[in-house]
Amino acid sequence: MSLVTTPVIAAVKPASPGTRGPTLVLLASACLWGLLWWPLKGFAAAGLSGPVLSLLCYGVLGVCGIGLLWRERRAWQAHIALLLSLMAVGGFANTAFVQALVIGDVVRVMLLFYLAPVWSVLGGRVFLGEKISRRRALAVALALVGLWFVIGGDAAWSRPLGFADWLALTAGLAFAGHNLIARAAQAIPMLSKTAVVFLGSGIVSAVTVLLTGEVVPAISAPLALGLLAYAFIWVVLATATWLYGVTHLESGRAGVILTVELLVAVVSAVILGDESLRPLEWAGGLLIAVAALIEATDPNDSTPKEKTA
What are the boundaries of each domain within the chain? Predict the structure, then answer.
């Protein structure tokens, strides 16, 4: 999106990208998010906690984005409530999710976080008036059954929810809420949406660091390079593609497509980590992939009209 200095925001009808392009972008974003746990575990081994990591990456990028937000202020000043909601809800979702993955079990955290598609579908119906078609209901049902299989059914709840579990659950709720707000805020430019999420994540993580009294360790040159790579790939690129996808797709559809993240996380945890999967869990992953495929190939979806500066 090109930035201009004119104070007028015109309602235009851009050439619609359809749903195929946004769907592919969102699937790529889901793959990146599914691998998020891998660098986070490495940073944790180097002495960086989740809030400190969020502060160093999201917070710095958020401060850098203040100038961009100011430059685009004419586009969002009439929608300040939506912008602040994006900052608060998106900031909490990112910070809580990062901390949950740092301290928790990857598969369990991903399961609880990925109740988010259910919240997205229900929220889209309640707040945005989006219809829940039979096809979408089937996709959601398959995704939920798959999630249940992935954690082993009733055996998964033999132990109570811990702190990481609650972080993952509330992060999923916040993530779904942010999807709904991002779609409702069509008049706010995409770059402003992205920058405000970074800023919100930085604020939430800074408050967390202050309240818990955590100390930022010394950053070596290799660790600094790793943080830069993480910031670009898993913060800038993954967040921008995610925001693009959820803005151009119905929230329910976007939520189901993003369950691919769980599949990627589970498979990568087995290949790169020390976790293993039973046949029932592999079957659950397959159901999740089928649910995402059903939703991604739905020919009856529509693309919302946006306002651009």
Answer: 35-296
